[in-house]
Amino acid sequence: MHKSASDRILLVVMLALVVLFIAWPIGSMLIRSVQVPVPLSTARLADMTRAALAALPDDRGTTLRARWAAEAAPRPRMEAIAAAFTLNGLEVPWDRTAAFDRQIPAAEQALAGLAPDLRARVTGDLPLAVAMLHKRAVLVHLAGEALAPAMREALRSGQTTTMGIDHYSRVAREHRLRAAGLNALLLATTTTVITTMLAFLAAFGISRGLVVGAGLARFGLLVPLVSPPVVVATAAVLLFGRNGVVTHDLLDRTLGWTDAAHDNLYGLGGVLVAQVLSFLPAAFIVFDNLFTRPDGRLDEAAASAGASPWQRFRHVTLPMAQPGIVRAATLVFILSMTDFGNPMVIGRDLPVLAGVLYDEMIGFHNTAFAAAIAVWLIVPALAIALALNRIGGRRRFTSGFGGGDGGGNRQAAMAPPPALRRGFSLLVWSVIAATGVIYATIIAGAFVKVWGRDWGLTPHHFTAVEAVPGFVSSVVGITPVWTSLVVAGIAAPLGGLLAVIAAYLAERHRSTLTECMALIILLPAILPGVVFGIGYLTAFNAPFGIRALSLNGTHAVLVLNILFGNMFVGVLAGRALLRRIDRSIDEAAAALGASPVQRIRHVVLPVMRHAAILGALYVFVDGLSTVSAVVFLQGPDIGLAAVAILNAAEGTYYGAACAMSVAILIIVFTVMAAIRLVERGRLPARAAGTNPAAAMGAA
């Protein structure tokens, strides 16, 4: 389609937005990860100190320099003498590693032993050395805006930055980081194998009609997608922890079979169970899409050739499913590697690399090192994906048929053995039953006063009233849920709208620019949320070097992060929809003189209503449940529900964590049900959305 001037303006604006709020944060994170602080040389530090002293008004710098030198205590004076020696190109003649009570007289003796001209030069630099070593912070404060921001920071810290891989190599050098990395690799590998296998079998069984109640089973497997973070880990602690209903009340106190203090789910096994149940829905979606439209003629041909069900599965299904296996395994591996919530809640003494990243950011504000760890977290997954793709690339599989319809009917006609149906049904419904127990536990935990100690019921975990007098919780009530609801409620409609616009531009105005825009939009889908979160922290701390423009700790940065981090779903859905719609709709609207805004409002949005709703819903759900992308961005006065749930669960305030989780689930399912009802009510009007004349008449 021919692009008008207004089309070009819209494209430039959209491209600028995705570059500013997606590409720039990711690039900032990568740059920050290779910025290594190094001490300023003595000469450079002296030059900066001279400049700062000269910037003070009314010759105040000279007065302060003399006063600071006269008031210097013996140890600062000794250190200043050593610096003055260095400034004059002299070697420090005493042992700088000796005790200070020995260095102080040695420094005075060395100064007195210099030739008169050298002693005069060194003594003349002593006031500067005292200011340079011990009064930099005061000097920066006094100079204020007279110094450039970069110079103020360098003079205050005595450091500058250079590019290097020190943060990356530190992971390999330090034992605790190597141990955390190995734990993360072991956990991620095990989780990936188990989760991918379960998701593959579940999707295969449901799509092939091998599971009783396949439709309900599909819904049951996907429910955890909308749940808040660490729900599974929290429920596992309530059931199988030291005070768990099963381990403590049943197996220990009632039956006397175990000692709950030692025989519980804490550690690697508990984290593994939590991650498998948490990440199974994401992997299931990959395989469910893969098996949704099968070509049954392949199985029919194999069966006609005398292949047994196992041979058909091994030589037909598995090879054709290989791309989905690679995608699902990569997805689960990245999710496991970047998960710090489940190990924090149920891992206890199991250090993992994502947990180290969390500690570095929350405890030490070490953004550069945390950024390097974030990159380390995704390197193994990308390496595995490339290796699997390389191995799979040597073999090509094609159906050889036209991809016609009716494959599923042929497969249904090939009745599976009853034992196979029982096996698949048992597997899938066991997973769903475990999920049901998890959510039942969370609901119960929201109303129990103190789990494992006081089984009385209370509604006060949802209110501002303390549920148990004297039991001090870090969270009182579900106030963080309303904060998250506001943030997600703002981000969702904007995300749906921008996703539709981006999809329209990428699909109807294909060019190098639009393809670049679409690729940038997909980056958050490839990278874990923690990378995107650290990227926003580095990019918007002082945008363009101007601290007045900082967004960190505000509602705005949370909305932008959630919006641009999740709009890719609406873009993918919108592009897929537009490929099935004739371009003549847009051409007719343009021929009638509609501007791009009018075409988007009266033609594109009605036609792409479902893509916009899907995109907005995904942004909304993620805005309520995401942790890794926003945990480093919320300010001290802004508490999001997902982060509050994580902190409450880690602090063993399980009632508060369960109450907030239940509140989020109620909100999400209510919104989904409302959207469903609205969509059903608009079914008869769908045809009008594809009528260009009707659309332009409305304009």
TrEMBL record:
Family: Belongs to the binding-protein-dependent transport system permease family.
Signal peptide, first to last residue: none
Localization (cell): Cell membrane
Domain ABC transmembrane type-1: 181-388, 481-675
Name by which UniProt lists this protein: Iron ABC transporter permease
Pfam families: BPD_transp_1
PROSITE patterns in alphabetical order: ABC_TM1
Membrane-related topology note: Multi-pass membrane protein
Organism (species): Tistrella arctica
Residues annotated as transmembrane: 9-31, 184-207, 219-241, 265-287, 324-346, 366-388, 426-448, 481-505, 517-537, 557-578, 611-633, 653-678
PANTHER family: POLYGALACTURONAN_RHAMNOGALACTURONAN TRANSPORT SYSTEM PERMEASE PROTEIN YTEP (PTHR43496:SF1), PROTEIN LPLB (PTHR43496)
Matches recorded under InterPro entries: MetI-like, MetI-like_sf
Alphabetical keyword list: Membrane, Transmembrane, Transmembrane helix, Transport
